[in-house]
Sequence to fold (324 residues):
Amino acid sequence: MNLQRIAVIGAGAWGTALANTAVRAGRDATLWARDPAIVTLLTTRRENPRLPAIWLDDRVAATGAIADVTHSDAVLLAVPAQELRVAAIALAPHIPTKTPVIVCAKGIERGTHRFMTEIIAETLPGAVPAILSGPSFAADVARALPTAVTLACADEAIAAALAGALGSQTFRPYHTTDVRGVEIGGAAKNVLAIAAGIVQGRKLGASATAALVTRGFAELARFGRAFGARGETLTGLSGLGDLILTCSSPQSRNFSLGIALGERRAPGEKLAEGAFTAAALVELAKERKVEMPIATAVAAVLDGRLSVDAAIDSLLTRPFRAET
Fold:
């Protein structure tokens, strides 16, 4: 496959970081931004206020015209999960059939319960859906700090080609055909990271955090198995690896949201994908009869049905059982 020309849709922190990554890998990258003010900053000053103190590589072409991506060999969709459908519909007239479209968002669409690549299949039926996920902060990737992620596509040859096209010494994509497993890891870990943040905010201790993350992973794994995910995917970078990162650093917006809830503070303005995914995750789990008490408690807190203290009590007073 010829994968020289890479388009990145969405000039947030993650999209900007991925554009820098693409040119470091020797590709020609075009970064599309919806906001004209962001386009101006990217083209004149090579900076993005969403990624402070980090410069857009001079080799990246910034644009506000989505038609500029027409001749791209592959497209990275780096927009929030709940905005993915709108972005894909806007993209549809501008990409040829069989173009790989790589989702770089982690979530489940509210209302429809669609996974990210399912949205691509619905809105871009001629495209080749893929997904990129794993333990990665935008600032680390933009600075070329060592990062490993997972890139999944149903076609193994395409998955390998995409990983090779985007990979470099400091950005290492491991490829797989387990698309659903990668999607589930990214979506579920965001919800669980909110719970970990609540534990931190309530100052419940390191032992409680370890227990929460471990039992949270058990929930993620149960959910994944119900949807046919492979065990090695769930214990890999896009599952356990991403969960560990997101549950341990204030750089994670989901973890930070949980800390604010635990400390009884108003959450910040930054988008936390887990806040939108929680209800959809729990609803899907109920449909498949998958027990997810931690995720259920998080969804109830976010929806205002439970206080933080009541949610903690509901988890601590569950019946004793065998570890599974």
Q: What stands out?
A: The longest helix spans residues 179-201. The mean pLDDT is 95. The radius of gyration is 19 Å.
